[in-house]
């Protein structure tokens, strides 16, 4: 009897525990519970402690109200230029109405995936490959607009759509790499050509400036050299002019006559006789007549008077007949020439005494 009572009490305790478990339901934060009574929607449980009628009400679904991320596998899509590309997408969505998400569609995630693929094929089908690769933002915006409009009645809001990857076929990738490489080579060649052109221009400008400076330097050098030559010639001409003027003035101050010119002519004859090669020198006997003819010829020269009037400025020449020492290089022919010169002078001026002939004509300088 006592054992039966214990078993009954145990069964009652288990029933109470089961009723309590069916009555009290705890819903986590950011979730919503869908309660059905006899298979029909009754209410939505909020996060926290909730009480339901046991064995009558049933929590059918617990919906996650947080934003969720779903990545769909790559799908083949044909572009406008008939190229097949593989595109995988990422969808960011959030359940806003748990009742609609439960009863309006059986599996909203699968529905979003299929809608994303069909919409993506429709958008990319109107673009070529290059436009598809460079228009991600446009594709994302258009895809999000279509999905948000379609999933609104499902109680789902699509917050963002991203194209995670667009992979063209391997042959197209190889062609794109070649095109990119050719484009980069083209730009490199253009930059190299521009650099060479700038270098050539700068080099030509430098050579031009160098040539200009060199020409200017040569011109200035030639100008300075010409000025120096001109001044040198002017100074040389002035010096020669002053020397000629001094000699001419000295000659006019001395007032020379024909005897002096004949003497200067005869003075060169001993120098002709000098030298080691002149071993023998014969003085002709007609030298007096020759000198007379020379004197008569010079009488007709203009500017040289035959006789001068008035006193002439004379230079003290020392003794009338100085003794000339014998020089090592003088020969016997030279002495004979000197003696012939004296006889010719005495014959040319017979009116003057023999001792005064040397004074009028000057004396023979020592050889």
TrEMBL record:
Keywords noted in UniProt: Hydrolase, Membrane, Protease, Transmembrane, Transmembrane helix
InterPro entries assigned to the protein according to its UniProt record, in alphabetical order: Band7/mec-2_domain, Band_7, Band_7/SPFH_dom_sf, Band_7/stomatin-like_CS, Stomatin_HflK_fam
Main location: membrane
Lineage top rank: taxon: Bacteria
GO BP annotation list: proteolysis
Biased segments, Low complexity type: 346-356
SMART domains membership: PHB
Localization per record: Membrane
Keyword Magnesium: no
GO function terms (MF aspect): peptidase activity
Bilayer topology annotation: Single-pass membrane protein
Domain Band: 22-180
UniProt family annotation: Belongs to the band 7/mec-2 family.
Name of the protein in question: Regulator of protease activity HflC (Stomatin/prohibitin superfamily)
Organism: Nocardioides marinus
């Amino acid at each position: 009897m006592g054992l039966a009572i214990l078993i009954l009490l145990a069964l009652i305790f288990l029933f109470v525990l089961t009723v309590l478990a069916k009555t009290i339901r705890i819903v986590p934060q950011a979730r919503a519970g869908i309660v059905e009574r006899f298979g029909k929607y009754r209410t939505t449980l909020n996060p926290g402690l909730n009480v339901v009628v046991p064995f009558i009400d049933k929590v059918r679904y617990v919906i996650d109200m947080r934003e969720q991320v779903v990545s769909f596998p790559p799908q083949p899509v044909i572009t406008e230029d008939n190229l097949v590309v593989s595109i995988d997408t990422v969808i960011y969505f959030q359940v806003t109405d748990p009742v609609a998400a439960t009863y309006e569609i059986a599996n909203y995630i699968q529905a979003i995936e299929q809608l994303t693929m069909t919409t993506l094929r429709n958008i990319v089908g109107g673009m070529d490959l290059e436009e598809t690769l460079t228009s991600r933002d446009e594709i994302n915006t258009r895809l999000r607009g279509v999905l948000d409009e379609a999933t609104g009645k499902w109680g789902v809001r699509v917050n963002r759509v991203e194209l995670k990857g667009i992979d063209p076929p391997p042959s197209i990738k190889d062609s794109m790499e070649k095109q990119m490489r050719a484009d980069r080579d083209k730009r490199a060649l253009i930059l190299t050509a521009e650099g060479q052109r700038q270098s050539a221009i700068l080099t030509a400008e430098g050579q031009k400036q160098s040539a200009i400076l060199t020409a200017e330097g040569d011109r200035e050098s030639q100008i300075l050299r010409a000025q120096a030559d001109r001044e040198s010639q002017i100074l040389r001409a002035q010096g020669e002019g002053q020397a000629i003027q001094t000699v001419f003035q000295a000659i006019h101050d001395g007032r020379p006559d024909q005897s002096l010119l004949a003497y200067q002519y005869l003075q060169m004859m001993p120098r002709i006789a000098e030298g080691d090669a002149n071993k023998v020198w014969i003085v002709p006997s007609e030298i007096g007549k020759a000198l007379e003819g020379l004197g008569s010829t010079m009488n007709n020269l203009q500017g040289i008077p035959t006789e001068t009037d008035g006193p002439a400025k004379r230079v003290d020449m020392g003794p009338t007949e100085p003794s000339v020492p014998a020089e090592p290089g003088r020969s016997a022919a030279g002495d004979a020439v000197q003696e012939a010169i004296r006889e010719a002078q005495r014959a040319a001026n017979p009116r003057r005494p023999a001792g005064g002939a040397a004074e009028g004509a000057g004396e023979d300088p020592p050889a």
